[in-house]
């Protein structure tokens, strides 16, 4: 694989990760600019997560059938068009529609990893996937960091316009340089499973994202969750019996895959659950709340900066370290480090140094974990199923992120409020919830089949 091709894949993946997270700390500013309320503006994030979660496995499967390079160009184009349209949207409704268009390009992640598997030599596979995973993990954190200063200096439209222009150039580059897929899985997109997948994911994600406003025991939330459970059962039976399933249920249940999928789900919940309330914690006035630092958006971004930096560093070095200690060991270490960092933050957050150290440790742990997760997935599936396998994991990561971004802030908001901010014990509870999620991920990582360092994991299906 040429450096230019890899650069295009890396640019697309990193820009997508930034588009997911960058709007979180800037939603109040966007609401003021487009003339809407705080409740309605959250759909800018919710709609993106909804569409991304649904489209990822579908686009991954289409890439396996029709060629990953074609679908990559299409995905990068949708991301670019949706981002630019979001920047120039005259009102909230148009912005939400544009975000849905952008999210339809979420398949760029499984497609990029699938192209790496098709094109990279075995010697370069570990380092290439580690670097791309590091950019994904670091990009999500970097989006949180650059959002505040970018909006303060240039306005919120550049939050969408800048990545949109970069993605447009990447789409053109992909069309010219990314080679045709040598590995394909013959067949057609299963329409009924795709419809059923959408029919159970959308109600569940709407319920999870709106429950803080509607109430967890409200008729709407209970009804949506009940509908999702019923349709999920129908979808699972349909996929199990399909000759050409969209999501191979046997693959999802296979030894080596279910562990990595649960790690993706819990780590996504922890990552976006933290992103959803950490800026508020840092901006809270300490005189009123007993914690926080009273900084602005730019100050909060600087305190979080250690997270994306160490995410990238951890992911970048993970490929070489995995040759010596094994991918599983680094996933376990990364999950444990992330859990420990949030436990440390819960009980030791008095100074800015405490925050920086905890964020750096969290970032390094996430970098190790995400960088080594993809090679373990590749080793568990045939080459022709790589796109859908990574798509499943990416979908679960996005699903976890949607749940975490809704549930963790709701838990914090349910505690005592002082001067418009949750009290200190509420934030402590939030940090402990994230630590608990990463501890669950650690347990799942320990159950991944053992492999010898320097070899690919062997997985019994």
Itemize the secondary structure elements and their pairings.
Elements: H1 3-21, H2 27-34, H3 38-41, H4 43-66, H5 68-87, H6 92-103, H7 108-119, H8 122-154, H9 157-177, H10 191-214, H11 219-241, H12 249-253, H13 257-283, H14 286-289, H15 297-304, H16 306-325, H17 327-347, H18 352-380, H19 386-413, E1 417-418, E2 421-422, H20 424-446
Antiparallel strand pairs: 1-2
Helix pairs in contact: 1-7, 1-8, 1-9, 4-5, 4-6, 4-7, 4-10, 4-19, 5-6, 5-7, 5-9, 7-19, 8-15, 8-16, 8-18, 10-11, 10-19, 13-18, 13-19, 13-20, 16-17, 16-18, 17-18, 17-20, 19-20
Description:
The protein has one domain: MFS general substrate transporter like domains (Growth Hormone, Chain: A). It has 461 residues and is mainly alpha-helical. The protein has helices spanning 3-21, 27-34, 38-41, 43-66, 68-87, 92-103, 108-119, 122-154, 157-177, 191-214, 219-241, 249-253, 257-283, 286-289, 297-304, 306-325, 327-347, 352-380, 386-413, 424-446; strands spanning 417-418, 421-422. Mean pLDDT is 83; it is low at 453-461. Strands 1-2 form a two-stranded antiparallel ribbon. The chain is built from 20 helices and two strands. Strand 1 (417-418) and strand 2 form a beta hairpin. It holds the Pfam family MFS_1. One of its GO terms (molecular function) is transmembrane transporter activity. It is a multi-pass membrane protein.
Question: Top keywords for this entry?
Answer:
two-stranded antiparallel ribbon, 2 strands, 79% helix, globular, disordered C terminus
């Amino acid at each position: 694989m040429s450096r230019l091709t890899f650069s295009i894949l890396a640019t697309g993946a990193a820009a997508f990760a930034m588009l997911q997270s960058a709007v979180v700390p800037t939603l109040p500013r966007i609401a003021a600019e487009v003339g809407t309320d705080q409740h309605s503006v959250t759909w800018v994030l919710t709609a993106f997560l909804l569409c991304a979660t649904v489209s990822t496995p579908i686009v991954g499967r289409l890439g396996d059938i029709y060629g990953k390079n074609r679908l990559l160009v299409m995905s990068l184009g949708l991301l670019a068009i949706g981002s630019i349209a979001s920047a120039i949207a005259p009102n909230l409704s148009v912005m939400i529609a544009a975000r849905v268009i952008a999210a339809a390009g979420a398949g760029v992640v499984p497609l990029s990893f699938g192209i790496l598997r098709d094109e990279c030599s075995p010697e370069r596979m570990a380092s290439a996937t580690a670097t791309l995973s590091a950019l994904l993990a670091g990009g999500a954190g970097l989006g949180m960091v650059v959002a505040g200063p970018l909006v303060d200096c240039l306005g919120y439209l550049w939050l969408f316009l800048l990545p949109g222009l970069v993605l447009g150039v990447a789409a053109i580059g992909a069309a010219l340089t990314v080679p045709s897929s040598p590995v394909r899985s013959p067949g057609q997109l299963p329409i009924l499973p795709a419809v059923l997948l959408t029919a159970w994911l959308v109600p569940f994600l709407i319920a999870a994202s709106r429950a803080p406003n509607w109430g967890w025991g409200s008729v709407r939330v209970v009804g949506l969750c009940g509908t999702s459970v019923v349709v999920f059962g129908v979808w699972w039976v349909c996929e199990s019996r399909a000759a050409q399933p969209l999501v191979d249920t046997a693959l999802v249940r296979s030894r080596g895959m279910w562990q990595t999928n649960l790690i993706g789900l819990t780590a996504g919940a922890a990552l976006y659950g933290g992103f959803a309330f950490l800026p508020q914690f840092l901006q809270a006035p300490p005189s009123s709340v007993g914690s926080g630092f009273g900084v602005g958006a730019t100050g909060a971004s600087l305190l979080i900066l250690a997270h994306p930096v160490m995410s990238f560093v951890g992911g970048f070095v993970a490929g070489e370290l995995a040759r010596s200690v094994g991918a599983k060991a680094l996933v376990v270490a990364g999950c444990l480090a992330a859990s420990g960092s949030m436990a440390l933050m819960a009980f030791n957050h008095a100074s800015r140094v405490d925050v920086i150290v905890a964020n750096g440790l969290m970032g390094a742990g996430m970098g190790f974990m995400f960088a080594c997760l993809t090679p373990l997935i590749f080793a568990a599936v045939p080459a022709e199923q790589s796109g859908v396998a990574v798509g499943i994991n990416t979908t679960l990561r996005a699903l976890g992120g949607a749940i975490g971004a809704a549930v963790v802030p709701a838990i914090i908001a349910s505690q005592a409020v002082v001067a418009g901010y949750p009290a200190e014990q509420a934030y402590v509870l939030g940090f402990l919830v994230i630590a608990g999620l990463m501890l669950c991920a650690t347990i799942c990582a320990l159950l991944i089949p053992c492999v010898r360092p320097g070899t690919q994991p062997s997985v019994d299906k």
